[in-house]
Write the structure tokens for this entry.
Amino acid sequence: MHRALLRQARRIQLLPLNINTRTPPARSFSQTSTMFKVDSDFDKVQASRPDFNRDQEVTYSKPPNPGWKQGDGANDGGESLKKNHIEIDPYEEGRPATSNYKFLISGMVPRPIALISTRSKDGTSTNLAPFSYSQVINHDPPLLVVGFVGSLDRAKDTLKNLAETEECVVNIISEHFVEAANATAVNAPYGVSEWEVSGLHQAPSSVVQAARVKESVLAIEGKLVETKEFKNREGRKTGVLAIIEGVRFWARDDAIGEDKSVVDLKVLKPISRLGGIQYGRTTDALEIPRPQF
Ligand SMILES: Cc1cc2nc3c(=O)[nH]c(=O)nc-3n(C[C@H](O)[C@H](O)[C@H](O)COP(=O)(O)O)c2cc1C
């Protein structure tokens, strides 16, 4: 395994510290329990890590090969061509669905996190929870998608409210409230609000009933377009896709210019979801001009 990658994997705890660097990478790769469950040593591990650097600015570097020309291919001098791949059938015999979950959430990274605020249909309760099966899929009209584990008849509170009211607010998580946002993932019973648990503040929305997160640099009021349920191979309903139209945007005034378009990454400082309980920062960027034919 490439040394820099190995160092990085150790830092984020994908590999045990005593892994033998000479063994073939794919099959010797093992995940620590901290990948998905916090074990008793986690406090010690956390304490051993450097403090969060609040002053870390977003910086821009050159791309790895600034002199890249058409046809040059990868920028690693052919190193990646020497590696082998293993093929995985997601439904191979004996493979549990959790392996696919771990594979997908650790491999399809980084993912934006939609911190979704909803209100119950009768208006008596509010709900706030994070979802990283989320993405923007169109801008005209503005469309977002969110994937919910479960089904409409066993819906997470957010999905129940979204399906019943057809409204929500999608808030983007920034570094300055990552712990509070994480706290909203608590599996509180329906009707118990995560706002108090998190200590986050509600701000009024304009065209939907659910509140925005006041601390969020960016929030999008949304109306449900449609939901689609998915079944697994045993015929059990296991996932619901929600398509949401963004009907009102909110951006902090120091994060957006007069033309109300580009959101400033240096202010947004978005937090993304990586595998397991890992979150990512986006503080290292590079720019490459779009090719013209
Ligand atoms: C960062 C993060 C991302 C998550 N992404 C998803 C997701 O995409 N889909 C999902 O069903 N659950 C996801 N979860 C779990 C839900 O947040 C969790 O089940 C929560 O309790 C749901 O709350 P609710 O029942 O109030 O809607 C995520 C949790 C965290 C911490």
Summary: Residues 113, 127, 129-133, 147-149, 156-158, 182, 185, 187, 273 surround flavin mononucleotide (CB under 6 Å). Confidence is low (pLDDT under 50) at residues 1-34.
